[in-house]
Amino acid sequence: MADLAAEAEELDGYFSDASLDPEPRYPNLKESFDTAIVVLNLPKVPEAKRGKLEKVVTKIISRLGNLAANEDTGFTGFSMPFNAEKASTEGFCIVEYETPEEAKNAISVLNGYKFDKNHSLIVSPYVRAQKLENLAEKEFVEPEQAPFEEKPNAMSWMEDSSQRDEYVIRQGKETIVSWFDGKVDPIVDYDGSREKEAGVNWCEYYCHWSPKGSYLATLVPAKGVILWSGSTYEKVGRFVASDVKTVLFSPQENYILTNNMRYDDEQAIKVYEIQTGKLLRTFALYPDNIEREEEVPPPPFQWSHDDSYLARMGKDLVSIYSTPSMRLLDKKSLLAEGIHEFQWSPKSNVLALWSPERNNAPAHVDLIEIPSRKKLRQKNLFNVSNCSMVWQNDGDYLAVKVTRHTKSKKTLYNNIELFRLNEAGIPVEMLDMKDAVMSLTWEPRGSRFAMIHAENPSSTKVDVSFYDMMKKSETMKKVGKKGALQKQTTLVPELNKIETLTGKQCNCLFWSPAGSTILMAGLGDSASGTLEFYDVDTKSLTIKEHYRANQVLWDPDGRSVTTCVSQPVEGGHFKFAMDNGYILWSFQGKQLYQQSFETFYQFEWRPRENLLSKPEIAKVRKELKKYEKQFEKADKDRARALYLEETKGKRQERKKIRDILSQLRELRREQRPRHIELLDGYDSDDDTNYVVREISIETILSTKEETV
Amino acid sequence: MRPYLLQGHERPITVIKYNYDGDLLFSASKDQIPCIWRVENGERLGTFHGHKGTVWDLDCDRFSKQLLTASADATVKLWNIQSGDLQHTFTHRGPVRGVAWSEDNKKFATISDPFVEHNAKITIFDTAELDGESDEDDLEPLLEIDVPKENSRRVQMTNISWTALNEHLLIAFDNGIVRLYNPTTGTIEEEIRVHDKKINRLQLNQSKSLFITSSADFTSKLYDTANLKHLKTYTTDRPVNDAVISETKDHILLGGGQEAMSVTTTSGKVGKFETRFFELVYETEFGSVKGHFGPINALAINPNGRNYASGAEDGYVRLHFFDKSYLDMKDPVPEAAEGTEELSTDDDDEDNQGNE
């Protein structure tokens, strides 16, 4: 018993009558490794530098979320193994965050992060690392090289023997590519018949040519973008992009950007490399730091002329991504406080951007060179309410239309700032306009520009003015031994006005790609559809009309121009569906061809590259006579062949109808006696039934008196 | 040459017709007073007063003595053309859409719309039985054909004509069909579907060997009357209200335009209120004449081929005289044997006509 009592005493305190805690407080058991990530490709450092590296890494990772530190166990949420044998770190670390979201975010931000010159981080979820651990190691087998597949010749259409242009139309369910040369009616090149046989449409939304015309991208919202190329329109590329709404080719056709315009999609915008079909990067529709407003359209991406950069505007900055890595250039965006708009120069890596007045700083237009980020030119402007920038297509000039207000902010007026980029120091000239300027366009490859202006922006009659950035100046110069004076024309960079056409009814200007000719058009719902073809050099004017026209499209070499009445693919009933269709005009304003459709969505000319330089073009112009003969002959032959083709069927048709008509006449002749009988014997062919009366009318045209 | 603008009506023109000899032109409009014009100089010779509703159709006999007018006031009136006197009134059950003299100028047939409980009707009268004295007591029709509802939908006739030798009545319907009725028994002899939509007008050429239909489905179709065989189709981009076959050339004239209803919402240039000229054989449009600012409701071409007239919703009749370049126009496909002829450049002289 004493034993028992002693034992009870000993055990006293172990037993308690108090009820047990029903929910013991254990630390939460984490059932998954969602919060853990593995960071690879860290530098391997010896013991001495270990502390420093840990510090640096901790600093980076802790910025992206709270680490799952546990004071009790002394775990910091970060562990970097150290290999004692090699006396260096292993080059990786494990990080644990408090929440899976933080971990996810950290992966997206840190993956590919340039830790230093030689180390780009590779970050993956811990789970994935675990899987990799269990991966059975196989012997490396060199992948077999895929047999070479010849891609169709994307330039085959350029080799057309009769130098025709191509265009594509979207109409109803059809997507048709046709040839057109301005002389004969369009000839269908490909209409998706091969796909139709297979039971699919080769295009279900819009379609677009690539900038050099090598590819035709057709949009199939359910799948993505398909590229077609070569003489038979073979499928040469497919890019997955569900709900795709727009595509943007890079100017050199190396990349394609797809966009589905969805606010809720983190991967709304995708950038693919065309040759490999590899997805390079995805973007959300809006940059992170911009407030998302449904009314404000997302800032567009813009490619630089040589495909080196892709840029998009954010709040107070421009993010420039360099290709093909698609990483931010120099790891940081280009800061531009208050930026409102930017544009790449069409021929060099120069950005033009403008920001409005702000914090006592005036509004300014900047020209910035990329990648050096050197400010080439800055122009300060005052009392600005709006600016719009227009580049000349060679990047030689930049016009900035500045809408300014008076101090009272009641009245608006315009002036135009003209930058000359091809001259040292980039001089800027200012053109003061008292009127409101509605539109300004540069002559392609030229030095002239045209603009629409009127005293009252809402007036129907407007003026169109033409200016030249270069002035022809005539100087007398001594030439030769005798010192004879000879006129010499030189061009001096001086802004001068060419002329003003008054009382026009137009709201848009379209220069021909060949220059010299301009089409002044009144487009849209409220306009009349007037088309005025004007040649600035010869001053000839042709006025035509295409009612309800809402688009004007020049072919790439300025031979013909299209005006269209088209409706959006989505949008149901179209008010002017009756007028849907397009008209092809010659550059002189002669109607060449016309087609109407119940539903007409799109017209696009196949672009072609300008392969000739300016002096080469001048040379061709000089020797035009030589070419003329050869082309005229070709034209004649073609016209003759066509004429024979056309009249062939017509003769037969005519014969058929004539036979029918003569049969009917014969029938009537047989019936004639009965007809006469019906008319009580009156025969209209009987001359006795007619009274013949001769009337002579004398008209005195003029009288003249002469004194002899 | 500038056309004569015949301003005699106050409301939309419904029909215009030349007489057999082509020296007189008759016009009717919704203003209830048909007019008669001298073609040579565009002068108005007289008017026919008496109707109390829109005059939908009229027909002049072979010798230009008697005129029949069909009106929405449910009557057909017979007039003496020379004096302008009313000779007789034939009352109907509903608005009268069309009227046509038989080839012998003794009988005429009318079509009337369904009205209240009455169906549409085809009625044939014999004018020989008229005593010429009283226009009060009504003449009993020779034949009355009832046109019953089809699929419980009232049918409406739009046009009536007699075929050669009074063999048949050729009638166009608003559902796109054309029927041949026997004028003595009143039975349907043949029926063909010509259009999917309303046939606005059916016109025969003078020898009655061909007829052309104009439809709201934007097309016009040429048929052979004897065999009821489809020959050609002329396609436009607006409803066609009237079409005529030229007597002297292988041409077809088409008139129409946007529906009057939607005209006010658009500009005059858009409605496409031009008279369009088509090649009869090749079905291609080769010219057009502008001028009206409402859809063209009626077209007529002079049997001598020297002029044509168009009447429109705007209430005007325009009398156009062809210029020499049109009259001299040849078939675009030369007659010579294939491959030997030279290229001929086509002149589009039609376009500059009537631009004033």
Automatic annotation (TrEMBL), chain A:
Annotated GO MF terms: RNA binding; translation initiation factor activity; translation initiation factor binding
Coiled-coil region: 617-670
Subcellular location: Cytoplasm
Top-level division of the source organism's lineage: Eukaryota
GO biological process: formation of cytoplasmic translation initiation complex
SUPFAM superfamilies per the UniProt record, alphabetical: DPP6 N-terminal domain-like, RNA-binding domain, RBD
Ranges where the RRM domain occurs: 35-128
Listed GO CC annotations: eukaryotic 43S preinitiation complex; eukaryotic 48S preinitiation complex; eukaryotic translation initiation factor 3 complex
InterPro entries reported for this sequence: EIF3B, eIF3B_RRM, Nucleotide-bd_a/b_plait_sf, RBD_domain_sf, RRM_dom, TIF_beta_prop-like, WD40/YVTN_repeat-like_dom_sf
Record key words, sorted: Coiled coil, Cytoplasm, Initiation factor, Protein biosynthesis, RNA-binding
Keyword Protein biosynthesis: yes
Protein family membership: Belongs to the eIF-3 subunit B family.
Protein role: Component of the eukaryotic translation initiation factor 3 (eIF-3) complex, which is involved in protein synthesis and, together with other initiation factors, stimulates binding of mRNA and methionyl-tRNAi to the 40S ribosome. RNA-binding component of the eukaryotic translation initiation factor 3 (eIF-3) complex, which is involved in protein synthesis of a specialized repertoire of mRNAs and, together with other initiation factors, stimulates binding of mRNA and methionyl-tRNAi to the 40S ribosome. The eIF-3 complex specifically targets and initiates translation of a subset of mRNAs involved in cell proliferation.
Quaternary assembly: Component of the eukaryotic translation initiation factor 3 (eIF-3) complex.
Xref: HAMAP family: eIF3b
Entry protein name: Eukaryotic translation initiation factor 3 subunit B
Organism, as annotated: Fragilariopsis cylindrus CCMP1102
TrEMBL record, chain B:
Biased composition regions of type Acidic residues, renumbered to the chain: 338-356
GO biological-process terms attached to the record: formation of cytoplasmic translation initiation complex
Main location: cytoplasm
Domain of life: Eukaryota
Gene Ontology CC, one term: eukaryotic 48S preinitiation complex
UniProt KW keywords: Cytoplasm, Initiation factor, Protein biosynthesis, Repeat, WD repeat
Pfam families (alphabetical): EIF3I (PF24805)
SMART domains according to UniProt: WD40
InterPro entries to which the protein is assigned, alphabetical: eIF3i, WD40/YVTN_repeat-like_dom_sf, WD40_repeat_CS, WD40_repeat_dom_sf, WD40_rpt
SUPFAM superfamilies in the cross-refs: WD40 repeat-like (SSF50978)
Cell location: Cytoplasm
Residues covered by region (Disordered): 330-356
Subunit structure: Component of the eukaryotic translation initiation factor 3 (eIF-3) complex.
Family: Belongs to the WD repeat STRAP family.
Task performed by this protein: Component of the eukaryotic translation initiation factor 3 (eIF-3) complex, which is involved in protein synthesis of a specialized repertoire of mRNAs and, together with other initiation factors, stimulates binding of mRNA and methionyl-tRNAi to the 40S ribosome. The eIF-3 complex specifically targets and initiates translation of a subset of mRNAs involved in cell proliferation.
Protein name: Eukaryotic translation initiation factor 3 subunit I
Organism (species): Fragilariopsis cylindrus CCMP1102
